[in-house]
Design goal:
About 70% of the residues lie in helices and about 5% in strands. The chain is built from 14 helices and five strands. The strands form two sheets. The protein has a three-stranded antiparallel beta sheet with strand order 4-1-5. Strands 2-3 form a two-stranded antiparallel ribbon. Helix 1 packs across helix 10, helix 9 crosses helix 10 and helix 9 packs parallel to helix 12. The longest helix has about 35 residues.
Length: about 375
């Protein structure tokens, strides 16, 4: 019965994770009006499933991260009641935040539930050095890196585009090779001038489309380039989220040695997708519309920074939060632009602070109940 309960709790956690997290990678596409809510959500779901599948190969280290190894006695790391308490503590916390519309971190919730449950299992003791180095340090440093990098990158990109006079009505042009010019010499012969060459330049779109420039091989409006990169970056961030989050949730099942890794990953990936499709709306509205208004270059900057850090962390086996990183990247751009809604950011930060104790207390209560009633 406990094994079945562990499966139900893990799938509930995956569902809650999808409901709270699936939209985060495409929040910028919805926020700047590029895609509708349904279009953005469909794209996020496809990318998340692809990331979940890829996690079999690229994120194996994270599967083991949330079993409690190093925090409790080795025999407890595969105990079904211990793992069920961790899973439920995290799931209940993430679902509460989803219902209230706050984007919180499943990683953060799992860390809190793991710490609280381990504290009870160890009879009131906890090795803070292990949990601090393995969990708290990556969770603390990654948002700071994201907010700083996004702000600096956007400021730098804005400066460069200003120097190049690259605006929304600009284009990138590549001209066809020009015929070599010839000039008569005093002796009556001809002297060939510069060899044929292609010209690359940034100009106003209207100028590129004038009659005397029809020989251009390629005319790419700035808006088209930025839009294409924005879509790629959003897909990459959703992919990274599936890559990073799936193995953390699977770790709860895998540690119990009750299910194969393939079955666990498939079930978790499907539950995450369903949660995102059915219950993403409130979190989507808060992240996309209320943190800061975004135009497409700003959205692109935030997504590039977030996807880079999440993919790198997944490859290194670091339990960072996609939520913390993506919200921080968006906030970094908003702060540089002086358009960030500080009240909304404050409320989100408060929800992050409350995630740990709520998850820890929930895990502690359930594990204590298991021990008290002999489950």
């Amino acid at each position: 019965m406990l094994v079945l309960l562990l499966l139900v709790v893990t799938l509930f956690l995956a569902y809650a994770n999808g409901a709270n997290d699936n939209f985060k990678g495409v929040a910028t596409l919805y926020g700047d009006g590029t895609l509708s809510y349904r279009q953005a959500l469909s794209m996020a779901t496809v990318a998340q499933i692809a990331g979940s599948i890829a996690s079999v190969v690229f994120a194996a280290a994270l599967v083991k991260a949330f079993s409690g190894k190093g925090l409790v006695a080795p025999e407890l790391t595969s105990a079904t009641d211990f793992l069920t308490a961790i899973g439920f503590g995290a799931a209940a916390t993430v679902m509460l935040a989803t219902v209230l519309g706050f984007p919180i971190s499943t990683t953060h919730a799992l860390t809190g539930a793991l710490a609280g449950t381990a504290f009870v299992a160890n009879n009131g003791s906890l090795d803070l050095s292990v949990i601090g180095k393995s969990f708290f340090l990556p969770l603390l440093v990654s948002p700071l890196l994201a907010i700083t990098t996004a702000g600096m990158l956007y400021a730098g990109a804005r400066w460069v585009s200003g120097k190049l006079n690259w605006a929304n009505d600009s284009c990138f042009c590549i001209s066809a090779p020009q015929t070599a010019a010839a000039m008569a010499t005093p002796a009556g012969s001809t002297l060939s001038m510069a060899a044929p060459r292609r010209l690359m330049r940034i100009a106003k779109l209207e100028a590129c489309q004038q009659e005397d420039l029809k020989a251009d091989l390629l005319i790419l409006p700035t808006r088209t380039i930025v839009s294409g990169l924005h879509f790629i970056s959003a897909f990459a961030l959703c992919f990274a989220r599936g890559l990073n989050d799936t193995p953390k949730i699977v770790g709860v099942l895998f540690a119990a040695k009750a299910f194969s890794i393939d079955v666990s990953l498939s079930a978790v990936a499907i539950a995450m997708a369903v949660g995102g499709l059915l219950q993403s709306r409130k979190v989507a509205e808060r992240m996309s519309k209320k943190v800061t208004p975004l135009d497409e270059p700003q959205a692109l900057t935030a997504n590039l920074v977030a996807s880079f850090y999440v993919i790198a962390a997944s490859r290194l086996g670091l339990p960072v939060s996609t939520t913390h990183i993506s919200v921080s990247a968006i906030s970094g751009v908003g702060l540089i632009n002086r358009s960030a809604n500080l009240r909304v950011i404050r409320d989100i930060l408060l929800s992050w602070v409350l995630t740990l104790p709520i998850a820890a207390i929930t895990g502690m209560i359930l594990y204590t109940a298991f021990k008290t009633f002999g489950a």
